[in-house]
């Protein structure tokens, strides 16, 4: 018999998109709400009174005024960069060469890869992140380590072997053929098993030859239901480099498009300095764009045009981009999203920030029917947020007259102390103390 669990607290459920509707129309909020979990799924969301009466045998978890919502979905991370997060003073290409590539080299060792995968998933669970799309390294071992660890936790994750056959050191380079073969083997081993999905992962066009991009384009055509994740137009110096490497390309996106790497199941990280043709093509195919604000400020890349891209009707998700990003926290990521919006004179509402970190990212990953919304039938990935987790936040939240005034101080000032509980696949995650 499956045991049922009833979580009691305030519930926040998106019933629409706050970029298209007012917060009142887009959100259902219950002050004394409840969420019934059964067999890894959300069985019901409703008022505490009603669900208590109809489920007298359910195990009760009382969260008081804690805010129960869908777990955070981080749409672009590099789990192998956990150990080099917050490395000082470089721009993108120097940062990759100085910090990232030497660390990624270590993931040829399966035991090392397993230890970092475990650490990364422990740390992110402490931040209420329940699903992420991760780049691994060139080594298939790094993918096996990540999927094995996620599978043991019943966690929904997306990951792929990062492919690079040029402009990277020996020991991190594969070839066009080995990238194709290894990625295909990994798809056949992992894709669609339990809650695991494979993403075909050319790192970015500067580190792939045209032959490798073409090989991965062919692979995607063979497995079109896989996501394809890569980087696009992150930094102006990077874009200049792409121009010299692909002199015939119309623009950066064309270096993917030419080789069959543009599509609705494509996820394009950063997408800051887009040209009009690129925006139009991304919209036309329904691609996912991923905003990585802490990374964009940390590496000095630029300011994502959230307002314009949303107005275009693009599919946008939110991400930490660990470890180019400077935090594992989706609260911090939402705060940075707000700050970037302010710098562009287009501040986002708290409901829009929370939507991006849950349903929006789920939509970018094409998983909006499974995760990212607190609704019956969805998978039981849940975060409970303490809206008064520090004296600083509490004194501000205490003055709040609306839900949004109560939530916003936690978005701006909250950290792992605000995460009262994380549930993955219907199981409470015990915080690991390091
Ligand atoms: N572009 C290519 N690789 C990377 C990476 O690892 N991080 C970031 N931020 N940008 C990249
Ligand atoms: Zn990245």
What does the secondary structure layout of this molecule look like, with pairings?
Blueprint lengths: L3 E11 L8 H4 E12 L2 E7 H7 L4 E12 L1 E7 L13 H14 L4 H17 L2 E7 L4 H13 L4 E4 L1 E2 L12 H15 L5 E7 L7 H13 L4 E6 L3 H10 L6 H6 L8 E5 L5 H10 L2 E4 L1 H6 L7 H7 L2 E4 L11 H14 L6 H15 L17 E4 L5 H7 L5 H11 L5 E6 L2 E2 L6
Parallel strand pairs: 1-4, 5-6, 6-7, 7-9, 8-9, 9-10, 10-11, 11-12, 12-13
Antiparallel strand pairs: 1-2, 2-3, 4-14, 14-15, 15-16
Helix pairs in contact: 4-5, 5-6, 6-7, 13-14, 13-16, 15-16
Guanine (GUN) binds next to α3.
Q: How is this structure best described in words?
A:
By secondary structure, the chain is of the alpha/beta class. It has 2 domains: 4-70 and 373-428, Urease, subunit C, domain 1; 72-364, Metal-dependent hydrolases (TIM Barrel), CATH 3.20.20.140. Helix content is 39%, strand content 23%. It contains 16 helices and 16 strands. The chain has helices at residues 23-26, 48-54, 92-105, 110-126, 140-152, 176-190, 210-222, 236-245, 252-257, 276-285, 293-298, 306-312, 330-343, 350-364, 391-397, 403-413, and strands at residues 4-14, 27-38, 41-47, 59-70, 72-78, 129-135, 157-160, 162-163, 196-202, 227-232, 266-270, 288-291, 315-318, 382-385, 419-424, 427-428. The strands form 2 sheets. Strands 5, 6, 7, 8, 9, 10, 11, 12 and 13 form a 9-stranded parallel sheet that branches. Helix 5 (140-152) links the parallel strand 6 and strand 7 (157-160). Helix 5 (140-152) packs parallel to helix 6. The two termini are 35 Å apart. The structure holds guanine and zinc ion (ZN). Residues 78, 92, 96, 100, 203-204, 231, 234, 295, 299, 321, 324 line the site of guanine. The site of zinc ion (ZN) has 6 residues, from strand 5.
